[in-house]
Amino acid sequence: MKRFLLILSIMTIFCLTACGDGDGEGDSKSANMDKPNLAEEEIEVSLQNAVDIFLREFEVDYITKVELDSDMDQWKYDVAGTSNEKEYEIVIDAQTGDILDKSEEAIEKGDEEQGISLNEIISPSEAMKIVQSETSNEIGGWTLEVENGTEQYEIEVRDGSEDIDYIINAISGELKGKD
Length: 179
Fold this sequence. Notes:
Layout: H1 2-19, H2 25-34, H3 47-57, E1 62-70, E2 75-82, E3 86-93, E4 99-106, H4 124-132, E5 138-147, E6 150-159, E7 162-169, E8 175-178
Antiparallel strand pairs: 1-2, 1-5, 2-3, 3-4, 5-6, 6-7, 7-8
């Protein structure tokens, strides 16, 4: 009987520890706390370097997306581009420039994306400065892509357990809003 109670107690403690308090907030808060603040990071590989690495691997007509994000301990670029028939994507370590993953797939009709005018955009650091003038919250990463015919940065800002995307026109530097 004592053995049964001991096993039952251990299982109860294990379940309570694994399940948490059930409000769903603790897990996302702790995940966000572990994720680094891009505004305080020194990223070795620039946006242009990441695009150059991509272009050495794939022959494309357009770059359609560049994203810089972290998975807690490693900053990574995700660069995508298209040719007439295929979409290509590459994941690059933002500190070393090492290629972590790459893929290609056929483009389905109607899935074509617009290319980014890389020589006309403001830098990611300029876009982040615009956001930092609006908030003191941590920056979790950014995405550069064409939305509704306009190049734009989506700068991810962490506000407690919530992520807010600040939308910056990548050509003019104008803050377009929050999402």
